[in-house]
Amino acid sequence: MSRPVFARRFRVPFSACDPAGIMFFPQVFLLFQDHVDQWVTEGLGLSYAELLGPRRVGLPSVRWESDFRAVSRMGDELVISLQVERLGEKSLTLHFEVHGDGVLRVAARQVIVCTNLDTHRSMPFPDDLRAAITRFQEQST
After folding, report:
1. What is the 3 state secondary structure string of 58-106?
2. Of all residues in the chain, what percent are helix, strand and coil, respectively (each to 5)?
3. Residue 116 Cα to chain centre, angstroms
4. Could you report the per-residue pLDDT of 41-57, keeping only the tens digit for each?
5. Residues in contact with 84: Cβ distance below 8 Å, sequence separation at least 6, in sequence order
6. Which of the listed residues 65, 75, 135, 138 has the most CB atoms within 10 Å of its CB?
7. Nearest CA to 13 among 78, 70, 66?
């Protein structure tokens, strides 16, 4: 059985491109971060802004692996998708894919650690966030 996917469309803006006319690789990581924000807010039904703000729950990246397989240019319409690979007590591994015109452009894996933003120490995921991620994992595709 395949894992549930959170996906959305994205058009590469001029501001994301380098002088070579292709999407600058740091912009891809900004796209991934925005996608996590959207996933937590829309896909999990929790406010990402509230987690980081009043609740002081951080979700920083501690590891990235990425394969850039094809370039993306200004105006390209891409589909970015996210799947949960692993949910641990204090960490979460996500898998991303970026497709355009049926071609895999980027594949990446991110490890996030749940932290207390006041102490910057790792902590277990809050119960509501863990429950929402678990519900997401249990969705049928």
Report:
1. ECCEEEEEEEECCCCECCCEEEEEEEEEEECCCEEEEEEEEEECCEEEE
2. 30, 40, 35
3. 20
4. 999 999 999 999 999 99
5. 3, 4, 92, 93, 94, 95, 133, 136, 137
6. 135
7. 78
